[in-house]
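Input chain follows. Return structure tokens only.
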Amino acid sequence: MTDASGSIVLVNREVERLFGYSREELLGRRVETLIPERFRGGHTGYRGGFMADPRMRAMGAGRDLYGLRKDGTEVPVEIGLTPVATEEGMFVLAAIVDIGARKAAEDERRHLEDELLQAQKLEALGTLAGGIAHDFNNILFAITGFAELIEKAKSPADAAADVGQVLQAAARGRELIERILVFSRREIRERRPLQIGVAVTEAAQLLRATLPPSIQMRLNVHPQAPRVLADATSIQRVVMNLGTNAAYAMPGGGELEIVVEPRYLRDSMARSHPGLHEGPYAVLLVRDTGVGMNQAIRERAFEPFFTTKPKGSGTGLGLSIVHTIVKTHEGAVGLDSEPGRGTTVTCFFPAVEVSPAEEQREVGEPPAGHGERVLLVEDEPSLAEMNQRRLASLGYRVTAETDAVRALGTFRARPADFDLVVSDYLMPGMVGLAFAREIHNLRPDVPIVLLTGYIENLPDEAIRAAGVRRLISKPATILELGIALHEVAAAASGPDSTRR
């Protein structure tokens, strides 16, 4: 218990055990003694606000709290506060519970869920392999066929049309690979304004390959669905999990409908979903014509590891993962199901406003360079020649190297001769990050752009430490290269520097 000024006036044995102080050591000291230093600055204000309007605060309400033991270690706690009015003034009785064991158990559960989710995704990718191979063979067939026609073209006009077909097929191949890589990534990426319909469409295309012919899938994406603050990986996980659950509920076949639409929630509707408020939302709705759920199953549907599948047939994490992902996006999930009448899962994602400049971002001609000198490193000679010609066509002066060690020697001998460095990531002798670090050590001011077709996510800390200003996934278009080099060159030059 503390008095109105925050001085400790009562200590029981549990406090002595939890914090390592004796009763005599704490009596008369400020309560901030038991608070980690990083939180002490704001605690006086919190205490003042509480004393200005003293009312009981339930255990566990509010933010994450930590206590500071005598030995300097921190312990996660929950605290309940009860104001006690006496003739001597107002006192505050604080009930403190050590929740360290519970926190550790929650962390372990989240880790296990992540591992099981990854296994679930890898299993799904194995199912997808046949459909992916079929799609990719068609893409390669188109590229090969039109390239042969270009070789035998009788006029520039015929060749130009066939070139367009080759580029279109290559773009389809790139989109296919990107969908696979996004889905297979383990970690959640940074959330940005996202056209949710695009992410849902990509996930639905992957999902379609896993469905048996007896299930008909319909996709309906409203063109006016608002953007949401999200990452594509998470949205695709939601679609894949809901789609997989729906398919299991239709063993004899049926219909699966995936809908993305805009919806404005009035206050009365928002209150029926804890955590929502009145405003615009993007709604993801997944509806099936399966067996449905009774009340007992509906009440447990979102529990981790709860499943109606036979032992060994599923993790029971599908709806739990959906619920967790949607909640982390400040949204909510609704479930409507009856036995024999199918199931509808509705996910609400708060809409996010996008500036007109972002909304109207044009995709046109790549910006031209201004004679900047570029060191290009690419171990594949054909790709080195291609990128050298592409960058030269944009107005850059390019020195191309196919060996990273030799390129580093060139830069070390003449570090002032280059304004930009563009490097591949996977190269024999020296990977791109190691090469970038060496360049950065020699000239920390030179912008480095890294091209990568690597299937794993490169850690952001390592990228920044190596001086890499931009990371571009292969295969990169000339527009992407042009924009990247233009932006990093402009940022490097700054308003007060002069271009050599």
